[in-house]
Amino acid sequence: MAYVTTAEVCDANPQLIVSGEVRALQPIFQIYGRRQVFSGQVVTLKVFEDNFLVREFLEEKGNGRVLVVDGGGSLRCAILGGNPVVQAQNNGWSGIVVNGCIRDVDEINGCDIGVRALASHPMKANKKGIGEKHVPITFGGTRICDGEWLYADTDGILVSKNELSV
Q1: Which residues are within 8 A (CB) of 54 and not within 5 positions of it... i.e. 6 or more apart?
Q2: pLDDT, tens digit, 9 for 90 and up, residues 25-49
Q3: pLDDT value of position 1
Q4: Are 128 and 120 contacting, i.e. CB atoms less than 8 angstroms apart?
Q5: Residue 119: beta bridge partners?
Q6: pTM of the complete model beyond 0.90
Q7: DSSP code string of 23-67
Q8: Where are the alpha helices (DSSP H) in 59-136?
């Protein structure tokens, strides 16, 4: 499939925007990782200041998927760091979107994976394993469901109920 920018998708598909089939996340995310453009089927996770389940997911084969983590928007600690991102890269994840903070930014920026997060923070998260897997989550002004499709580039992030084609 030829690459089409998120802006082009929006311009060419106003009916999908109006119907809610395609939604744009609010522009609140910083861009990390070497892969500024990424897409894939969504896997959702809801946690709060705990990264045990994040690490657990990224230890699985990614198969080009995107892990979307609702970290509650916490700016008090990082729920994603360099080691899990390296593992995600090696396991074939396309990208990770975090409604929260990350750390080890230099290490993450050296990885061939796309990462979006609110900010960076030096403190690490808890590891209690508390959270919910494969549940609908809401942040960035939209609801995101497990199995939907995410498209990210330097213009923003789109979520679609179905895979988009050119």
Answers
A1: 45, 47, 67, 69, 79, 80, 84
A2: 999 999 999 999 999 999 999 999 9
A3: 44
A4: no
A5: 101
A6: yes
A7: EEPPS-PEEESS-SSEEEEEEEEE-SSB-HHHHHHHTS--TT-EE
A8: 82-90, 105-109
Question: Hey, what's the torsion of the CAs at 28, 32, 98, 92, to 10 degrees?
Answer: 140
117-128 pLDDT tens trace: 999 999 999 999
Backbone angles phi, psi at 33, to 5 degrees: 85, 160
Which tokens belong to 134?
A: 């494969």
pLDDT, tens digit (0-9, with 9 covering 90-100), for 54-111: 999 999 999 999 999 999 999 999 999 999 999 999 999 999 999 999 999 999 999 9
Token pair, residue 122, equals 């030096």
